[in-house]
Design brief:
heterodimer, A: alpha+beta, DNA Polymerase III, Chain A, domain 2, 3 domains, 9-stranded antiparallel β-sheet, 28 strands, elongated, B: alpha+beta, 5-stranded mixed β-sheet, 15 helices, DNA_polIII_beta_N (chain A), identical protein binding (chain A), Beta sliding clamp (chain A), DNA replication (chain A)
C-alpha cells in the first residue's frame, strides 16, 4: 500500500473514525483504524462490534493494499502535521508517514485479525442532513445515561410513510420530534431503538456536511438489528437496542392544560442558570408564575438563596412548580425558537415546553415534557 | 513510648480547668478474652485474623513486649512472639463489653462521644458539683470499669480533646494523667511532632526537613513557613495545636449516616429467587427504619459475601431520595443482576446512605408514576403496623418464607423479625 493524500482530508477522516474507537478495546486490533486503498480511494474505518464508521478519501494511489495502525496515535499525528501533502506507505510490519520534513514510523497490527465490518443495511430513505442533526439533538438530550436501564439510553425512531417520529426519555423528561422525510417505500412502517449517543454523534458529524443523509434500516433478514447512516463519503452502522417492550410514552403527553406561560427562551435560560448556582444537586429551582410574571428561586432556608423576577405572559391560576434546573435548560436550549410556551396542569404533573413563533403560537413538531420536583415545605 | 511518671501530671495536679476526659480501654479485645478465660492472664494474647492473611486487632501488654502491634500481619506477630495465644475476634462479645463501658461513662455525663468500641471523649464540666473535680471523676470511672467489667482503662484529663487523648496514651496501661491548663505547653512541647493529631508519616517527614522535630519547634516556627510546606489549612491547624488550642467540643450524638441491614444464610444460597426474597425482606426492614426516623436517602448499597468470604459492595446513587422498600429493592436487585456472582452466596446486605430529612426533601417525580404510589402504600402499612404489629401487614412474597436465615445480631433466634414485636396495647 502506497499513496499520497491531502493533509486536511486525512486528518478529518482519521479524527472522525478514531473518535468512535473503544477506550478499552476487548481485543487489541479494535484500537486500530484500518487504512485500505483500492480503486484510487482510501477507506478509513473503525469498529468496536457495536458501531462501525467508515469514510472515503480521494488519494493518489501508487499501490493498493491495507494496513492497521493505532487509531489514537494516527489521529494525534495527522492533527499535528504541517499543511503539506502526506505520503503513506506500508513497509513490512510498519507504516511510513512522511509530510514535509516530518517522518513517522508506526508499527502495524495484522490486518487478517481485524473483524469484517458489518454490511450497511438496505437504504430506507433520505432526509436533509441539517434538519436531521437538529431533530436528533432535540430528542437525544432527554435520553438516559444509566447503562443499567438500556432501553432508556436509546432514541426510539418511528418511520411511518413520509413521517419520522423520534422519542427519548430518561423517566424524568421526555422529548418528541416529528418531521418529514423521503422514504424509498411510501408504505414503510418500522420502529427502531437507536443508541442515543451514537445517533447524536453521527447526526452531529453529518449535519454540517449538508446534503442528504441516507437512513438504512432492514425490514428483517440481512442487517436485522442494525441501522446505518450515510452522508457525503461517511457511513456509520450501529447495533440497535432491544426496543420490543418500549413503553407507550406518547400517551404521557397531557391532552389538556390548566395554565400556560409564554417566555423568552434566552432570558429564562439565563435566569435559571444564574439562580441555580445556589441549588444543590437534588434541590430544584422554583418557578412561580402569576399575572405579574415569573419569579425564579432556589436555595434553602439555611443555605444560600437566590431569586430573580422576569417577564412572562401567564394565563391561569398562579402556580409554583419546581424543576431540576439542568432538565429545564436542556429543554429550552433545544427549542430552536426565541419564545417558549410552557403548559401546566398542576405542580405535581408533567409540564410541557414547546417552541412558539413571534406571535406566541405553538409551532408543532417538537415537545419536551418535564416532570416536576415535588417540594414539601 | 516511655511512660510519663512526672509528678506535675499526677492525680493531684491542678485539674480545675480540665473538663475533658479521654478514656481508652487497655488492649481491649485481648482484655475481654482474658476476662472470660482467666487462665490466659499474664500470658501473651493476640486477637486477630487467624487465617494466612490475618491481621492483629489487639495484643495484650505481655505480647506487646515482644514487639507485637495492632494492624501487624499475624504471620509477623507469630514469628515475633511464637508462644502467644492467638484468638479469632469475637465482635459480639466486644460490642457487649463496649456497651457496658459506655453506659458507665453515661452515668457520669450525657456528653459522651464514642470514637470506636474502646475509646470515648467525655465532657465532665457539668458533673463537678455532683461528682467532684475531673481527676476524681476519672479515678471513679477507672475504678468502676475495673470492678464491673474486670478490664482496665487509661484516662487523660485535660482542657482540650487532643491533649486529653495524648494524656491517655501516655498514661497507658492502667493509668491516669492530668494535664493542668497552665502546663499544657510544658506537656506538649517536648513531644515529637508525630504526636499531634493530623501529623502522619508524610507531614512528619516534611516537618523534619524544615528542622522541626518537636512540638516546641513547631510552636516557635513562623506560620508562613508552615504554610509553604503544608498548605494553608494544615498550617493553621498545626500552629493551633502546638499552641495548645483545640476548639472541638464533645458532641455526643453523631447523626446517622446510613441505615442498613444484612443477613447471613445458614447454608450458602445460589437460587436468585431466594436472594430476591432476602433482599425484599432487608429492603423492607431498612425502609421501615428510614420512615420511622423521618429519613430518606439517595444511595443504595448492596453487599454480598460469597462462600469464600470475598465481599463485594456495589452502590448506586438515585436521582432523588427514597424511603420505600420498593425502590430500595429495585435498586438493590438491579445491582445484584448486574453483578450476577457465579459462586454461592453467604451473606447479603442492603444499606441506604446519603440520608436527609424526608419531610423537607425535594423529590424528583417520575414519568407515569401513579399519584398515590408505593410511598403512600408503604406509609399505610406503617400505620397498620403501628396498631397491629409488623406481622399484620407486609410483602406477600415473604409469606411462608422458610426460616433459613440467621440474622447477624441475634445468633439464637430462628427467624428475622421484620421489626420489633408488636407492643402490648
Amino acid at each position: 500500500m502506497k499513496f499520497r493524500v491531502e493533509r486536511d482530508s486525512l486528518a478529518d477522516a482519521v479524527a472522525w473514525t478514531a473518535k468512535s474507537l473503544p477506550n478499552r478495546p476487548s481485543v487489541p486490533v479494535l484500537a486500530g483504524v484500518m487504512l485500505r486503498v483500492a480503486d484510487g480511494r482510501l477507506h478509513v474505518s473503525g469498529f468496536d462490534y457495536e458501531v462501525s464508521s467508515q469514510v472515503d478519501v480521494e488519494v493518489q494511489a501508487d499501490a493498493d493494499g491495507a494496513a492497521l495502525v493505532s487509531g489514537r496515535l494516527l489521529a494525534e499525528i495527522t492533527k499535528a502535521l504541517p499543511g503539506k501533502p502526506v505520503d503513506i506507505a506500508a513497509v513490512g510490519s510498519h507504516l511510513e508517514l512522511v509530510c514535509g520534513s516530518a517522518r513517522f514510523t508506526l508499527p502495524t497490527m495484522p490486518v487478517e485479525d481485524y473483524p469484517t465490518l458489518p454490511e450497511m443495511p438496505a437504504a430506507a430513505g433520505t432526509i436533509d442532513a441539517a434538519t436531521f442533526a437538529t431533530a436528533v439533538a432535540q430528542v437525544a438530550v432527554a435520553a438516559g445515561r444509566d447503562e443499567t436501564l438500556p432501553m432508556m439510553t436509546g432514541v426510539r425512531v418511528e418511520l411511518n410513510g413520509t413521517s419520522i417520529a423520534m422519542l427519548a426519555t430518561d423517566r424524568y423528561r421526555l422529548a418528541m420530534r416529528e418531521l418529514e422525510w423521503s422514504p424509498n417505500d411510501p408504505d414503510i412502517s418500522i420502529n427502531a431503538l437507536v443508541p442515543a449517543r451514537t445517533l447524536n454523534d453521527t447526526a452531529k458529524t453529518l449535519g454540517p456536511l449538508g446534503g442528504q443523509v441516507t437512513l438504512a434500516l432492514a425490514h428483517g433478514g440481512a442487517g436485522e438489528g442494525m441501522i446505518g447512516f450515510a452522508g457525503g463519503t461517511r457511513r456509520t452502522t450501529s447495533r440497535l437496542l432491544d426496543g420490543a417492550n418500549y413503553p407507550p410514552v406518547r400517551s404521557l403527553f397531557p391532552s389538556t392544560s390548566n395554565a400556560q406561560a409564554k417566555v423568552s427562551v434566552a432570558a429564562l435560560v439565563e435566569v435559571v442558570r444564574r439562580v441555580a448556582l445556589v441549588a444543590e444537586r437534588t434541590t430544584p429551582v422554583l418557578l412561580s408564575f402569576s399575572d405579574d410574571g415569573l419569579v425564579v428561586e432556589a436555595g434553602g432556608s439555611e443555605e444560600a438563596r437566590a431569586s430573580e423576577a422576569m417577564e412572562a405572559t401567564f394565563t391561569g391560576e398562579a402556580l409554583t412548580i419546581g424543576f431540576n434546573p439542568q432538565y429545564l435548560i436542556d429543554g429550552l436550549q433545544n427549542l430552536g425558537s426565541a419564545t417558549a410556551v410552557l403548559s401546566f396542569i398542576d405542580a405535581f404533573k408533567p409540564a410541557v415546553i414547546a417552541p412558539a413563533d413571534d406571535e406566541g403560537e405553538i409551532v408543532p413538531g417538537y415537545r419536551y415534557l418535564i416532570m416536576p420536583i415535588r417540594v414539601t415545605r | 513510648m516511655p511512660r510519663e511518671r512526672d509528678p506535675r501530671f499526677g492525680p493531684h495536679a491542678d485539674d480545675s480547668a480540665c473538663g475533658i476526659l479521654h478514656v481508652d480501654m487497655d488492649a481491649f479485645y485481648a482484655s475481654v478474652e482474658i476476662r472470660r478465660r482467666p487462665e490466659l492472664r499474664g500470658r501473651a494474647v493476640v486477637v486477630g485474623g487467624v487465617g494466612p492473611r490475618g491481621v492483629v486487632c489487639s495484643a495484650s501488654y505481655e505480647a506487646r513486649r515482644y514487639g507485637v502491634r495492632s494492624a501487624m500481619p499475624m504471620m509477623r506477630a507469630r514469628s515475633l512472639c511464637p508462644h502467644a495465644v492467638v484468638l479469632p475476634p469475637d465482635f459480639p462479645a466486644y460490642t457487649a463489653a463496649s456497651r457496658a463501658v459506655m453506659q458507665i461513662f453515661r452515668d457520669v455525663t450525657p456528653l459522651v462521644e464514642p470514637l470506636s468500641l474502646d475509646e470515648a471523649f467525655l465532657d465532665v464540666t457539668g458533673a463537678r458539683r455532683l461528682l467532684g473535680p475531673p481527676a476524681t471523676i476519672a479515678a471513679h470511672i477507672r475504678r468502676r470499669v475495673q470492678q464491673e467489667q474486670a478490664i482496665t482503662c487509661s484516662v487523660g484529663v485535660a482542657p482540650t480533646k487532643f491533649v486529653a487523648k495524648l494524656g491517655s496514651t501516655r498514661a497507658k496501661p492502667d493509668g491516669m494523667l492530668v494535664v493542668p491548663a497552665g502546663l499544657v505547653l510544658d506537656f506538649l512541647h517536648p513531644l515529637p511532632v508525630e504526636a499531634l493529631w493530623g501529623v502522619g508519616e508524610k507531614a512528619a517527614a516534611t516537618l523534619r526537613r524544615l528542622g522541626l522535630t518537636t512540638v516546641a519547634d513547631l510552636a516557635a516556627a513562623p506560620v508562613s513557613m508552615l504554610r509553604g510546606a503544608l498548605g494553608e489549612a494544615a498550617a493553621a491547624h498545626l500552629s493551633a495545636l502546638a499552641a495548645g488550642h483545640d476548639p472541638r467540643t464533645v458532641t455526643p450524638d453523631h447523626a446517622e449516616k446510613s441505615i442498613g441491614a444484612e443477613v447471613t444464610f445458614d447454608t450458602d444460597v445460589t437460587d436468585p429467587a431466594d436472594i430476591r426474597r432476602a433482599l425484599l425482606e432487608l429492603s423492607d426492614k431498612v425502609a421501615v427504619r428510614l420512615r420511622s426516623a423521618g429519613h430518606a436517602g439517595r444511595t443504595v448499597t448492596l453487599k454480598i459475601r460469597l462462600a469464600d468470604f470475598r465481599t463485594v459492595n456495589r452502590s448506586r446513587t438515585l436521582t432523588g431520595v427514597t424511603d420505600t422498600a420498593r425502590e430500595i429493592l429495585g435498586t438493590a436487585w438491579s445491582l445484584f443482576t448486574t453483578l450476577r456472582p457465579a459462586e454461592p452466596i453467604r451473606l447479603v446486605g442492603v444499606r441506604v446512605e446519603g440520608l436527609a430529612d424526608a419531610a423537607s426533601t425535594a423529590r424528583q417525580l417520575t414519568l407515569g408514576e401513579p399519584e398515590h404510589g408505593w410511598r403512600e402504600a408503604e406509609a399505610a402499612t406503617d400505620a397498620v403496623a403501628a396498631r397491629f404489629g409488623r406481622s399484620a401487614v407486609g410483602p406477600a412474597s415473604l409469606l411462608g418464607a422458610t426460616n433459613r436465615r440467621r440474622p447477624e445480631n441475634h445468633p439464637r433466634s430462628a427467624s428475622v423479625p421484620l421489626s420489633d414485636p408488636p407492643s402490648p396495647s
